[in-house]
Amino acid sequence: MTRTELFLSLKRSELLKNTSILISGTALAQLIPILLQPILRRSYPAEIFGAYAVYLSIVGILAIISSFKYELAIILPKKDKDATNIFVLTILINLVFNILLFIVIVIWKHVFLHFFNLSDKFSDYLYFVPLGIFFYSSYQSINNWLIRKKGFLPVSVNKFVRRGFEGLAQIAFKFTKNSHGIIFGDLIGHIANIFSGIYQGKRRGLTFKIVSPGKLKYVALKYSEFPKYNVIPSFMSACSFLLPVILINKFYSTEVTGYFDLSKLLLSIPLALISSSISNVLLQSISEKYKEKKSLRKDLLLIFGIVFSIAFVEILVISFFGVDLFKLIFGKSCGFSGEISKILVWSYAFNFFTASFSAIFISMNRIKLLSIWQLFYFFSIISLTLFRNYGFLDFLKVYVFIEVFCYVIIIIFMLYVVLGYERKLITVIH
Predict the structure, then answer these.
(1) Is the pTM of this model over 0.85?
(2) What are the distances in angstroms from CA 373 to CA 233, 365, 369, 377?
(3) Mean per-residue pLDDT for 112-133?
(4) I want to staple 169 with a disulfide (CB 3.0 to 4.6 A). Which of 105, 140, 151, 185 is the partner?
(5) Are residues 428 and 321 in the same domain?
């Protein structure tokens, strides 16, 4: 294939077009919190960001299971009627889950404070957890409806709305000297995101007139494989990714957690800007081609080139300029976050790579294989508790080694799934 033919092929690629829309929209949206960080980090002490990181980790872990993973099934049905009923089912399950969670938190608040090593001045943060989970999970359902309808531009717009409202609110609360301002801004951003998402969803056929108790029961049973095989493994996978923040806060201090959180924020930029967008587009694209028995090779090789290049650049930049970068952007006191980043960058580069292709397992109905890996990943991260007496930086090195090893394993699984599918296609053709 000549360069001209390659260029024209890329230009005509719907996958590349949809990915570009999501990436550009997400990039603009993510620029808001990134640009505000130098202001916010100078306005609030590191321990507040540490407590906020623990809050986000709890929300992130529990949000994975609050809808029993039915939200993933919204994309799959041929009929919008089934997809709409799955959407409503996820909202109902999510609501009941968080009402029960709020009751548990009210009863055992002090037990949770002790477990997470949070001081009493951060006790109110726990009360916001169910609300944060409900908002986050609700939008994931809306987001999957929009992806189902190929509404990639609205998805990007909604992300911009969320980050815009979140940033404006956090800056506004900064002037009130309210220690909850960071969380309030987060919740306000979620609310704006949901209202924008519902508006966009209704414009693309989302209507609740076709919802009925009988249909809700029908889709709950038809797609029961998601809660049966994906809830516990996904919960373990989320724990594996977010638990280190909680462990660091528990083993060391809230202040150290704040510096760790800043390092995570900067290293997660490719994850936030690109991998989720690529994964969303691949979920729709691979699902479609898998149903039609078409080859995935060209799409996956195209994405591989993009992802590998970005991961390589991130490793180089952080390894050579990480400490100076953090001091320049966030102040001299944040140089420690730069030291942390030089260790963590390998983990995040591999995570960025695997997260971009995570849709392969869902799109090709290989959830059980993904679940096996998630189980292995979970117990690997849990083993970090054996190293609680290590110095903080040595603890991080052990953590990164475990992460990279686990990501290599899932890459091998991905190759096994894709190459097996491509071999079957060749056999059918011949």
Answers:
(1) no
(2) 8, 15, 7, 6
(3) 92
(4) 185
(5) yes
